Amino acid sequence: MRVTMIGAGYVGLVSGACFADFGHEVVCVDKDESKIARLERGEMPIYEPGLEALVLENVKAGRLSFSRDLAASAPTSDAVFIAVGTPSRRGDGFADLSYVHSAAEEIAAVIEGYTVIVNKSTVPVGTGTEVEQIIRKFRPEADFSVVSNPEFLREGAAITDFKHPDRVVVGIEEERAKDVMRELYRPLYLNETPMIFTNRTTSELIKYAANAFLATKITFINEMADLCEKVGANVQEVASGIGLDGRIGSKFLHAGPGYGGSCFPKDTLALVRTAQSNGAPTRIVEAVVEINDQRKKKMADRVIAACGGSIDGKTIAVLGLTFKPNTDDMRDSPSLDIVPALQQAGATVRAYDPIGMKEAATLLDNVEYVEGPYQAIEDADGVVIITEWDEFRALDIDRIKELMAAPVMVDLRNIYRPKEMIERGIDYHSIGRPNVIVV
After folding, report:
1. Is the C or the N end of the chain the one with fewer CB within 10 Å?
2. 2-198: CATH topology
3. What is the pTM of this model?
4. How many CB atoms lie within 10 A of CB 82?
5. Is there a shared CATH topology between the 2-198 domain and the 214-429 domain?
6. Distance CA 243, CA 228 (A)
7. How far apart are CA 180 and CA 37, in angstroms?
8. Domain residue spans of the chain
9. Which CATH fold would you assign to the domain 214-429?
10. Which tens digit of pLDDT belongs to each residue from 135-189?
11. Which of 398, 389, 386, 258 is nearest to 317 (CA)?
12. Among all residues, which ones are annotated catalytic?
């Protein structure tokens, strides 16, 4: 099938490359001239494991190409996907749909013959209807269907998630659109991947509900971690004990500094605003949003306390800046709250992240960026692990102790074992775990 993907960002580029790998002919369209130029040179605008090889392979095979001209591909496409950004709108937290609306107007001007318009962007309930109305306004005679097809891609594992998903959700209002969507996802359908066909409104809400539930699990275990610290329990064992219950599950029960990224912060807030505006407030999600925001802001206090109550004039090493490993995404990362708070308390911050330092440098001022974890740690008065990159999981503890001015470690991801660290002379602090474990 022929596919046009509007938006060559994270969702559009990954989805486009994967559809091309399924055998479809895909054109990714983006207004950003520099981004298209980079892609045509084989340079990826984002970091995602395996993406570069996948893109280059499908470009070479002639199934994937890039363009700034929607009119060059949309008229002959069976499906046109909208995969543009929907950031939180400044001032009220609603999703900003200006890019979606603009894409709908541009689609209306160029489609020919029956075309399925697919909302791949994360959008509030009712957006599919708005897109249909916009296209119908500009092209009353156009033959098209608008479909909701939310993405469930984890940054760092997006290609696997696309090719081996838990489910594919499709919201339709016309049966004829179902045939097109089945054909697009036929490789998955033949492998018995569950495909849920529902109406557009339900499909749109499924995406928000899923992200809100996962954010709630993270926030719940973080609150349990706080309680564990007060009563002397171990949050990892609590998480294991409840996660083995099949009704609960073990995923997203890892205590830490709070969630960030491109999805959870904006999607939970958008769901809250949508629910409020429809007279059905989501009190649990409202609490999740508030608690998570407060948690990220309080993480610097843990570092200050571990360093004796003051970091004025001290050097703090920061390991990890992105919101999670295997991505260069800094959006709503806990580091954006922690690093400025440390600086405000008088500390000099020296930081290292395997992938994210270039992006971090555009968001964090007066940070010394170095080329490795040991360069960050050298002569530091404390080190804080914010992101659990693999290369931080097996640091040379004796070397750390030797290099640091004071061997203080605040591990916000619970990478190391408290008992072992203390026995090796590290003043170690983690999340929701006692420093001495009695077995």
Report:
1. C
2. Rossmann fold (3.40.50)
3. 0.93
4. 29
5. yes
6. 16
7. 31
8. 2-198, 214-429
9. Rossmann fold (3.40.50)
10. 999 999 999 999 999 999 999 999 999 999 999 999 999 999 999 999 999 999 7
11. 386
12. 263
